[in-house]
Design a protein that fits this description.
It is a single chain. The protein has helices at about 5-35, 40-50, 55-65. The chain is an all-alpha fold. It has one domain (about 5-70). The two termini are about 15 Å apart.
Length: about 70
């Protein structure tokens, strides 16, 4: 795989992770609204889970700078 293709793939997967995160937030918000959960709970849970986005972003950085290193793809 060329370095350019690896970079494109890495950032595409990171973007997909971000989109899936926000889709999960939307679905969780809808579920919490159906259960009459306070809106503060939605905000707290979103803030607690947001750092999990660091893993795909850092992995994309590593994979785009060093496509041959397997650690970025994990």
């Amino acid at each position: 795989m060329s370095a350019r293709a690896a970079t494109w793939l890495a950032w595409s997967l990171a973007g997909l992770s971000v989109v899936m995160f926000f889709a999960g937030v939307v679905f969780a918000s809808l579920a919490w609204l159906a259960e009459d959960t306070p809106s503060s709970r939605v905000v707290i849970d979103t803030v607690l889970y947001a750092p999990s986005l660091a893993f795909p972003v850092v992995g994309s950085l590593v994979a785009s700078w060093r496509p041959g290193k397997a650690i970025g793809w994990i």
